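Hi support team,

I submitted a single chain yesterday and got back a structure, but I'm not sure I'm reading the token output correctly. Could someone confirm the output below corresponds to the sequence I sent? I've pasted both exactly as they appear in my results page.

Thanks,
R.
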Amino acid sequence: MFDWNDIKYLLAVARQGSTLAAARELAVNQSTVHRRLAELERRIGLRLVHRHPTGYRLTEVGKQLLPLSAEVEESVAGLERGILSLKNELTGTVRLTCPEPILSRVLSSGFVDRFDQRYPTLKIEFVISDRYVDLAKGEADVAFRSGEPSDERLVGRKIADSTWAVYASRDYVARRGQPRSLEELSGHDLIGFDGVMENHRATQWLANAVPGARIVAHNNSVLGVVSAVKSGLGVAPLPIPIGDAEGELIQVLPLVEELTRAWYLLCHPDLRTAPRISAFIDFVIEELPLIRKVLGG
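Hi R., thanks for writing in. Yes, this is the structure output for that exact sequence:
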């Protein structure tokens, strides 16, 4: 209906009694005050001021609208104070947990550097562990986590796909040949997961897809399995972003549909509206194309 910004011109003229004094108060040209008042009257279809030799006077309609206009002014001022308060609260640390193999990809992507530039008073602190960090207990603030969320106390959204394939080193393939199918995997040396990853879907997939597989080594972390595969010790399923980033490795079997899961951005609902956490989540959403590449390859 009208530009709310024009209300301040009406209020300034009412208080100062002239467009010249109003212009001084608002630090604009007198012609700007004239123009904005005329535009406000045109938009609402009512005459708000009369010009007299001694200055401007409000019409009866203008007087009736004056208290409401003052309320708008106070509301806008309150909004500005609220925004300033939120900006002042954007300080401190956002503790982000993610799988260790992803950490280097997040750092090399420039994501953290751009976040620092946007929010110089906020810092990202990584919480890295060989287990799932408990957000509900406050061990971290937010998480990049693959697989369907199992903790109903958390809230979040899908941000990428987690994809896996089967890898071997070039040296291994040169010595032992390349498996071309799941059936052929049974004739190769395989590297498995144990420890905190003994119940991981990759472990379960190997047991089901390659019954009686010849497991020559186990490791309790993805990075450990990557190292074993690179050494030529055997073949293993790995996250595609991790495996493809290793020049010494090749995909011997393509995308394993059974291992595909979603990546989620998660936090506790009590933290979701905290300014520093909201700022981080909004930034992740803004950077989704990059995040999908980092997490999903």
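A quick pointer for reading it: The chain has a mean pLDDT of 89. Let us know if anything else looks off.

Best,
Support desk
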